[in-house]
Write a structure and sequence with these properties.
Blueprint: H1 5-23, H2 31-43, H3 47-60, H4 65-77, H5 81-94, H6 99-111, H7 115-128, H8 132-145, H9 149-162, H10 167-179, H11 183-196, H12 201-213, H13 217-230, H14 235-247, H15 251-264, H16 269-281, H17 285-298, H18 303-315, H19 319-332, H20 337-349, H21 353-365, H22 371-383, H23 387-400, H24 405-417, H25 421-434, H26 440-445, H27 447-450, H28 453-465
Helix pairs in contact: 1-2, 2-3, 3-4, 4-5, 4-6, 5-6, 6-7, 7-8, 8-9, 9-10, 10-12, 11-12, 12-13, 12-14, 13-14, 14-15, 15-16, 16-17, 16-18, 17-18, 18-19, 18-20, 19-20, 20-21, 21-22, 22-23, 23-24, 24-25
Length: 468
């Protein structure tokens, strides 16, 4: 690979410095060479080598302002802010027009959470520097810290106007647009950006993401296709393309795109799962279950994999096999609300109501607060004759769903069934108020209560009122 003269010299300086460390011979480097060496070690996380290089550099060039600024940057990195500030003040007296002094001073203010002062310093640096891109980027970050997304966005845009290749700024611009719920405006901006820089796979990918979020799947697919044409190893774009093809009901092509992500890198349980889903949609049941098994083999803790296998057998009405895999999942993670809910549903289908009741109880215990979970739990309690527990559970459910007619009709039926007529009347009145059409819930679930003359009179009166 061809290297420019600048890259060649940079590599020579590094080799020369590392050779010097091995032989303990002191060699001479100019101050700019030292700056590049120090910054290289900082960039790759070798702080001790950076400090060693800085020590040698200052011994050879004690008056270099560039090296002093590097020293200040390292002090700020180590949170030695007071010493860094003292050195900056001394340097400022000598070079008041040096923009790097204001940039480092801004870093100190930023670390102290004095972001407005940091912005003021950066604005001064902006007037002094020829490299405005970096300063706009830093301004954008300060505005992000201040939760001023509009000004942050504008500064990242200015950064990109200075340097269209700054990918970090591009990501940050899109982040600001999305945070401000300006997705349409973000697409307009990216269209303009792409007109100027049509081979930016990042811009095409971000455009695709935004279109996908707006459910504009055809436009999203076009964007992802461009991103993958520009960079045929862009895993993220292939993954998004596959998801979009699924939305467009093109499972054959989605499988190809998911497979590409597996070819490019280590396989992921998510890719296996989605390939399995696509095969199931195509009616390839054998391949579907093969990929679902690969999913749980790749990541046994991924609940979606076990749920996919369980649901696959549920759809085949093979309840015993579904329960077998669900028990395997529960042996790995017995605090997963999704597993317990399916465990309950399966046992309900098999008429094992005690196990169903346990499943719904555990699902709620581990964070499932869906209305249907509460209702199925109560229905399971009724099936095993736990009337008082059913009432207690429904009253718990009213804390989550105070305006649920399904709960109110059930409470009314239970209270009438247990001859607590005053409470029954209260809850049936509530149920009529919330939804007067579904009073047959009482007839279906509580036939004893339904036959009571008192209940029939209340329902008759309600029907005559016409308020439903």
């Amino acid at each position: 690979m061809y290297l420019s003269d600048e890259e060649e010299n940079y590599n020579l300086s590094l080799s020369k410095f590392e050779s010097m460390l091995k032989t303990n011979k002191v060699l001479f480097f100019d101050s700019e060479e030292f700056e590049e060496i120090i910054l290289h070690y900082l960039d790759i996380g070798k702080a001790s080598l950076a400090k060693k290089a800085l020590k040698l550099a200052l011994e050879q060039h004690p008056n270099s302002s560039g090296l002093k600024l590097v020293q200040i940057e390292m002090l700020i990195y180590d949170d030695k802010l007071d010493l860094a500030e003292k050195m900056l003040n001394e340097l400022h007296d000598l070079e008041p027009q040096n923009e790097e002094i204001y940039i480092q001073r801004a870093s100190i203010f930023s670390k102290r959470d004095q972001h407005e002062k940091a912005v003021a310093c950066l604005k001064t640096a902006l007037n002094l520097t020829h490299d405005k891109c970096d300063v706009y980027n830093l301004l954008g970050m300060e505005y992000l810290f201040m939760d001023n997304l509009e000004d942050a966005k504008n500064n990242f845009i200015k950064c990109l106007e200075e340097d269209y290749e700054d990918q970090t700024a591009l990501y940050n611009v899109v982040y600001c647009f999305e945070f401000l719920d300006q997705n349409e405006q973000a697409i307009v901006y990216l269209d303009k950006y792409i007109n100027e820089n049509p081979y930016s796979e990042i811009a095409w990918h971000q455009s695709g993401r935004l279109h996908y979020g707006l459910k504009k799947y055809k436009e999203a697919l076009r964007a992802f296709e461009y991103a993958t044409l520009i960079d045929d190893e862009f895993i993220g774009a292939f993954m998004e393309k596959a998801k979009t093809l699924e939305r467009l009901k093109r499972p054959h092509e989605a499988i190809v795109a998911y497979q590409r992500t597996i070819d490019l890198d280590d396989p992921t349980s998510y890719a296996y799962l989605r390939i399995g889903k696509c095969h199931e949609r195509l009616g390839n049941k054998k391949l579907a279950i093969e990929y679902y098994n690969k999913t749980v083999h790749e990541d046994p803790l991924l609940d979606k994999g076990w749920i996919a296998i369980t649901d696959f057998y549920l759809r085949q009405k093979n309840f015993q096999k579904a329960l077998f895999f669900l028990n395997k999942a529960l042996s790995i993670d017995n605090e997963n609300k999704n597993y317990w809910k399916r465990y309950a549903a399966l046992n309900r289908e098999l008429h094992f109501y005690e196990e169903a009741e346990l499943g719904y109880r555990k699902a709620v215990e581990f964070g499932d607060s869906e209305l249907d979970t509460w209702l199925f739990w109560v229905d399971a309690l009724l099936s095993i004759g736990e009337i008082e527990s059913a009432i207690t559970t429904l009253l718990q459910a009213t804390e989550f769903y105070p305006e649920s007619f399904e709960i109110e009709y059930r409470l009314a039926g239970l209270y009438y069934m247990t001859r607590q007529d005053k409470k029954g009347k209260f809850h049936i009145s509530n149920a009529f108020r919330l939804n007067g059409k579904h009073y047959s819930i009482i007839e279906t679930l509580f036939p004893i209560a339904w036959k009571r003359k008192m209940v029939q009179n209340i329902i008759k009166k309600h029907l005559e009122s016409g308020k439903f």
